[in-house]
Amino acid sequence: MHMPSHNHTPLVTVVIPTWNDDQYISEAIQSILKQTFTDFELIIANDGSTDNTPVIAEKFAKQDDRIIILNKPHSNGSIIRNHALEITRGQFTAVMDADDYSDHTRLEKQVNFLLENPDHVAVGSWFVRVDPEGNTLGMKMLPETHEEIDSLHIEGNAGAIAHSSLMYRTDAFRDIGGYSERPCATDYDLALKLAEKGRIANLPEVLYYWRQHLKSTSSNKSIEQARCAFQAWIDARNRRDLPIDHNTAERLGDEIKTMKPATKAQILSLWSRYALHYGELPVARKHAMHALARNPFCLQNWRIFKWSLTG
């Protein structure tokens, strides 16, 4: 493990877990090193990468002594994040995925919010989806207040706060035991648990850029994610002594039963719709053409392609 030489305790720890992200991790690291807020340490938690990710991370660590490299055998995202928690020193912890990047003011604005709102244990933000090349697919606005976010989550509607845009109080995170080691939906589980420790919120501005690509967990494990999210919802209702609403349980169960893994053509079509809605016609056209190439017999793909030509 590469550790910095100084003994200063930073206010913020940024954690970037990574596994075979050599195509994107440089941009992720640079987006943190260029932050307007500078009192941070950056833990790059390498989950057994077999590509050039460790080499890239070490190169940055030699140039900036705020960077800590944590190397562990490959496991999963939750386990490597919990390993990073063991060495986290900051009062606040910011999380980010290795294929994404942050606005240069993100840390400053989130730190200020948590300092000014001691009753809040976590804060996220709106985000922009980008494609593998970094082209804008569209902005996602999320509810701002604790009441809005948690009411959606506790009723079985995940995603009201974007995990990778989060900054949370490290003590609160440790109090809830860190990340669940379920194979997925740990972000939903985390948000539910943090909301039981204090208030959570979203800043109403874009501070995070979430990269979409065909090999991402969210693209490839939708059914497993839905099952894990369903269990996280049940666990949260039980922790809060709330009854299990049978209509909601039936709805979520039916969604899982009828869910099918998305094809690459369907994912590309979705990207095209995102971009079309946001007015990014060239990007929408590109992904519509790729979707058609994979499934030329889908009428919806042809409609989207036509809309991308005409707006």
Automatic annotation (TrEMBL):
EC number: 2.4.-.-
A Pfam family: Glycos_transf_2
One GO MF term: hexosyltransferase activity
Enzyme superclass (EC): transferase
Alphabetical keyword list: Glycosyltransferase, Transferase
Domain Glycosyltransferase 2-like: 13-176
Entry keyword Isomerase: no
Annotated protein name in UniProt: Glycosyltransferase EpsE
